Amino acid sequence: MIPDLTLSDILNGLDWTLFQNTVRDWLLAGLVTLGVWAAFWLAKRVLMRRLHRFARRTSIRWDDLVADLAERTYTAVLFFLALYVGSLVLALPPNIRAWIGALAFIVVLFQAGIWGNALIVYWIEQNRAEHLEDDAAHVTTMNAVSFVLRLIFYAILVLLALDNIPGVEVTALIASLGIGGIAVALAVQNILSDLFASLSIALDKPFVIGDFIVIGDLAGTVVHIGLKTTRLRSLWGEELIFANSDLLSSRIKNYKGMEERRVSFTVGVTYETPPEQLRRIPAMVEAIVASLDDVRFDRAHFKGFGDFSLDFEIVYYVLSADYNLYMARQQAINLALVDRFAAQGIDFAYPTQMVYVSGEGIGQKTAVSPRPTNGRSLPA
Question: How far apart are CA 332 and CA 335, in angstroms?
Fold first, then answer.
């Protein structure tokens, strides 16, 4: 049978001692904990709701940031802080009180780390959005700066946390880490070499985000410069990934800073072309090139005697780095040359063989294959 409990029995039971505190004290601590946690949770919900409502009505950015920070405030952190406040009601031994205070401080540092990282990411993203089009080098530098800021920020948080743990001497710990750091550095030297290469790229800026670069037989546009790797988007669409240390040890061609494009190509005419027409070809080519916009004629010369053609070398400059513009101008020049040569009765040369039959003086021309007229230029 369950004994009948009177109100006086219950009140007397509240005076029982449990771990140096009465049941009454434990119940009070629990009520304080629940009350504080409820207040924290309610304040977070109200703040988030009002901030989101305010953000929808305005175009300023800081309210979005504050709303994001409120969302990143973990409920578990709030509950642990409520437990700490509730523990203040209890009479606890000094060592336990010290450990509870240290844990509460570490939890606060943990939440501060989440907020700080969000602030750094927000700052970097805003800088990227504002300067990517007009100053990609600034964006590249800011990526490295963000890493340094995070490293310093987290190092400070860790040192503060260690300094508040009872019995931990931060000075002795740092000295021991200096010796262990050498062993760690030797173990991760490849990672560290890529890391320092990333900082070198950010400071020296051999290329920045948005540049078109060529490394060996691979080429693409820089889309991301990370701490360990750099990513390129090739002309065919796939992503090329290079270790930063490999990039700095390679010969890199950067075409983003190119202001104009030099084009050199050769045109061959047949050996049967009369000398008068040969003399007119350079002036003819110069007139064709000079008639086009965004190009500058450099020279056109009778270069030499080929195996089956008289070769003319033409050089001009496209006053832009745009590869599509270069191809359009080269096409216009090629078509104009075909029209002018046809009008003047000049034949383009192609690989041929002249076969002479001894004693008869009969020559037979045999076509081997067509000879394309190719322009040589820098890649897109």
Answer: 5
Q: In the CATH hierarchy, which fold is given to the domain comprising 261-376?
A: Alpha-Beta Plaits (3.30.70)
Beta partners for residue 241, in sequence order: 231
3-state SS class at 302? strand
List the alpha helices (DSSP H) in the chain.
7-13, 23-57, 62-71, 75-87, 94-131, 136-163, 170-187, 189-204, 244-248, 275-290, 323-344
The alpha carbon dihedral of 89, 90, 96, 100 has a sign of negative
pTM of the model: 0.47
CATH topology (fold) of 206-254: SH3 type barrels. (2.30.30)
Across-strand partners of 254?
A: 213
Cβ contact 252:207 at 8 Å:
yes
3 state SS of 252: strand
Q: What is the CA radius of gyration of the chain?
A: 39
**233-258 tens-digit pLDDT:** 998 889 999 998 888 888 888 887 78
* 6-17 residue pLDDT tens: 545 454 555 566
Ranked by mean pLDDT, the top range of 26-30, 95-99, 170-174, 331-335 is 331-335
**Contact indicator for 74, 114 with CB cutoff of 8 Å:** yes
Domain boundaries, the chain: 7-187, 206-254, 261-376
Distance between CA atoms of 134 and 210, rounded to whole angstroms?
11
Query: How far apart, in Å, are the Cα atoms of 208 and each of 18, 153, 248, 255?
Result: 66, 26, 13, 11
